[in-house]
From TrEMBL:
Residues 31-48, 60-71 have a biased composition (Low complexity). Coiled coil: none annotated. Residues 49-58 have a biased composition (Pro residues). It is a multi-pass membrane protein. GO terms for cellular component: membrane; mitochondrion. It is found in: Membrane. This is Mpv17/PMP22 family protein. It comes from Purpureocillium lilacinum (Paecilomyces lilacinus). Residues 23-71 are annotated as: Disordered. Keywords: Membrane, Transmembrane, Transmembrane helix. Belongs to the peroxisomal membrane protein PXMP2/4 family.
Length: 310
């Protein structure tokens, strides 16, 4: 047994102490690192903003009011707001258009005149041919009476009857012509359609009707073909020239602004004045023919000329 038991014991324990020191140091270093990391995390957590408490199920609002966060509009909310604005604008526009549509034009607010025009339009839709015949009778009667008053001569009922008969025969073809123009020459351009209808009417209907009117007047009054041809040569050129002063504007207004059932009465009102002019022009041609007959009398053919005048 060693005399120095304490020394041996110390020597025996010394390696253990040496071996434990690194571990202790390592443990201490780990503890220090953990403490530093914990301190750093605590400091960072202290600096970070605290999120608002989330209420649990059944809990009431938070006791301490916090600043309300401004909501960010989503795409659906923006689209809904835009749709609402557009819908409101469309509703306003539609309301304005409806208000304008419900306001009748001036010519529809003339009381007795409006009711008379409406009655004519209803008759035109239900009985078009009968309405046209009645209208032609009134138009040609008034036209010839006016034309005879212009000359200041005594009224000739035979001439009036002749003029009315010519108008009645032309009434239905005239109506059919209006129907033809309404159903045809309808293009994408409204202005082009109206212009074409007016040009076709002037190129086809005006010379055809004027030839019919003056030729029938001559034949019904007892003229032969030669005299009828002379009547046409005297009356057609001025009537065609003057028709361009009246009917293009009349037809343009009728096709641009009036429904079909009102076009006939509108053109009929204009036709009263126009037929007055045609009757007057026809009467002037008759007087010119009589003047030629009187010239023949002066050349020594008195009996023949007197019979022709009679």
């Amino acid at each position: 047994m060693s005399p120095f038991p304490l020394v041996r014991a110390a020597a025996a324990r010394a390696p253990v102490r040496v071996a434990l020191r690194p571990r202790t140091l390592q443990f201490r270093m780990q503890s220090s690192s953990a403490s530093s990391s914990s301190s750093t995390s605590s400091a960072a957590a202290a600096k970070a903003p605290t999120p608002p408490p989330v209420p649990g199920p059944g809990s009431g609002p938070a006791s301490a009011p916090t600043a309300a966060a401004k909501p960010i509009p989503t795409a659906s909310a923006t689209a809904a707001a835009t749709g609402t604005t557009a819908s409101s604008a469309a509703t306003t526009t539609a309301g304005s258009a409806a208000a304008k549509a419900t306001t009748p034009p001036l010519w529809r607010r003339l009381g007795l005149v409006t009711r008379a025009v409406d009655g004519y339009a209803n008759s035109q839709r239900k009985r078009p041919y009968t309405t046209q015949l009645i209208g032609a009778f009134v138009i040609y009667l008034l036209a010839d009476l006016s034309a005879q008053r212009i000359g200041g001569r005594e009224h000739d009922p035979v001439r009036t009857g002749r003029t009315v008969l010519i108008g009645l025969v032309a009434a239905i073809p005239h109506f059919k012509w209006f129907v033809f123009l309404s159903r045809n020459f309808n293009y994408a351009s409204r202005t082009g359609s109206i212009a074409t209808k007016v040009l076709v009417n002037q190129a086809v209907f005006a010379p055809t009707f004027n030839t019919y009117f003056f030729g029938a007047q001559a034949l019904l009054s007892g003229e032969d073909l030669a005299a009828t041809g002379q009547r046409l040569r005297d009356t057609l050129p001025p009537s065609l020239v003057n028709s361009f002063k009246v009917w293009p504007a009349t037809m343009a207004v009728a096709f641009a602004f009036l429904p079909f059932e009102f076009r006939a009465i509108f053109s009929g009102c204009v036709a009263v004045g126009w037929q007055t002019y045609l009757s007057y022009l026809n009467r002037q041609a008759e007087l010119k023919e009589h003047a030629r007959a009187l010239t023949t009398v002066a050349d020594g053919q008195g009996p023949v000329a007197e019979v022709a005048i009679a």
